[in-house]
Amino acid sequence: AQTVTQSQPEMSVQEAETVTLSCTYDTSESDYYLFWYKQPPSRQMILVIRQEAYKQQNATENRFSVNFQKAAKSFSLKISDSQLGDAAMYFCAYRRGGGGADGLTFGKGTHLIIQP
Amino acid sequence: EAQVTQNPRYLITVTGKKLTVTCSQNMNHEYMSWYRQDPGLGLRQIYYSMNVEVTDKGDVPEGYKVSRKEKRNFPLILESPSPNQTSLYFCACRGSYTEAFFGQGTRLTVV
Questions:
Q1: Considering only CB atoms, which chain B residues are within 8 Å of A35?
Q2: Distance between CA A28 and CA B10 in Å, rounded?
Q3: Closest to B48 (Cβ–Cβ): which among A50, A102, A109?
Q4: How far is the CA of B2 from the CAs of A26, B9, B12, B24, B30, in angstroms?
Q5: What is the 3-state secondary structure (H, E, C) of A35-73?
Q6: What is the tens place of the pLDDT at every residue in B21-61?
Q7: How many helices (H) and strands (E) does chain B have?
Q8: Interchain proximity A44–B102, CB inside 8 Å
């Protein structure tokens, strides 16, 4: 079974600085997807970024980027120029590829605090 | 607008009283799932479906039922709720190669 581990229950960063959230996963599959979801106090699950395992290039979305290390099974999220609106729970998630119907396996989450 | 709609958003019920949480999507996606979110545990998958009349158990299916009679709807049924089913529930849908789109969540309290 796949597992996703987020080793940082809580992180704190000063506004405008950079923070990196860690995620490791375990799988025997070669085709899979990785995601970071943001959950603000509204509880809505918002996709931040996605990475296909077959792509070597790290995904980037504006201030958000990932460091995808396939051999090490590591998928960290870097948030640059942190803003107050980035404060939220962040979940790392895995999904098997190949058209399977099974859903996402989530980590337990990292609570990100932004200090003004 | 692409949407996944869950109802109700909040529900307080008593032990043993059957309830249904509805989920509807307008994206014509094949795949739908239910998750529960508990503090310190993240989100865990309850059931998933790959199309009409095709459902399968996720990681924590005990005490839940689902049905998929129409592509757009995927209700979650608790036949006899218990306090350990107090949780935040999410419905999600996705296409074959897309990310998952989530509903707004249903906060369920069983007393």
A1: 99-100
A2: 39
A3: A102
A4: 32, 18, 29, 11, 14
A5: EEEEECCCCCCEEEEEEECCCCCCCEECCEEEEEECCCC
A6: 999 999 999 999 999 999 999 999 999 999 899 999 999 99
A7: 0, 11
A8: yes
